[in-house]
Amino acid sequence: MGQIDLNLIRTFVTLYDSGSVTVAAERLFVTQPSVSYALARLRELFDDPLFVRNRDGMQPTSVARTLYATFKDALSRIEGTVEGIREFDPHKTARCFRIALSDLGEMALLPLILHRLNRLAPQAELEVVPLEIDQVNEWLSIGKVDAAICSRPLSSTGIVRQALIDERYVCLLSRKHSRIKRELTLEQFQRESHVLVTRASGHGMAEDVIERLGISRRIALRIPHFSVLPKIIPQTDLLVILPSQIATLFAAEHPLRICNLPFDVPSFKVTLHWHERSDTSVALRWFLELVAEAITQSRP
């Protein structure tokens, strides 16, 4: 096998992450032919196509998937070491920071993060990766994302976390609900039809309590995201369980109201997660501090 240099590794990792020659070229600040040339060299070195084009983009082969974790980790460590001895200037950096957020995080937290980032690092780029709670441990470990914010604690080896917000679950319903006018009773809760947001969002604690208590109810609608709820709930008699912060936001902007749940669900913490490897990078430490301060300092 011939020699492989750092630029080839960087191109491989960027192409793997983006799934697109065009996007990889934009992120690397090079031309598309440069990425194609680097890919051709990599294919020759490993005697494998590495990426196969289909309608979903450039899909990695089994060889590419085997290489990715090692290449990504090596690249992160090299870049972290270089950054450690180089002065980091937020006002000049054009770095792309990547954070995994749920749709709730995008609605409630992203504006705070973006406002602070644009003020302190006007040339930096922020990429939001939709949170997949079952994948995010691996994403942090291999460096696909720099940080993740979620309500379910992540506990894989090397994952570090910082609590940002104390939260609780509430019930959201239309202000014009035909039967529930004041407090929500357990009997009413069981009698009404509900919207269930799937666990991929990372919010499953209330469902665990309902199952443990043996509470029965009818699920009329299952959806993957919370963001569509203000379009659905006001026109129906459906109930939905969601975190209080976003419920308050929805109720302030739409004809909705909030009720306490008629059973006890433990409060929980919204938490920032990152890999311990990031602590060696001046830029990533700065970004993590920015995210934490943007959110915690906005709280009353």
UniProtKB/TrEMBL annotation:
One MF annotation (Gene Ontology) recorded for this entry: DNA binding
Alphabetical UniProt keywords: DNA-binding, Transcription, Transcription regulation
Residue stretches in coiled coil: none
Pfam families registered for this protein in UniProt: HTH_1 (PF00126), LysR_substrate (PF03466)
InterPro entries: LysR-type_TF, LysR_HTH_N, LysR_subst-bd, WH-like_DNA-bd_sf, WH_DNA-bd_sf
Signal sequence, start to end: none
Span of domain HTH lysR-type: 4-61
Domain of life: Bacteria
Transcription found in the keyword field: yes
Family that this chain belongs to: Belongs to the LysR transcriptional regulatory family.
Name of the molecule in the record: DNA-binding transcriptional regulator, LysR family
Species this protein is from: Pseudomonas lutea
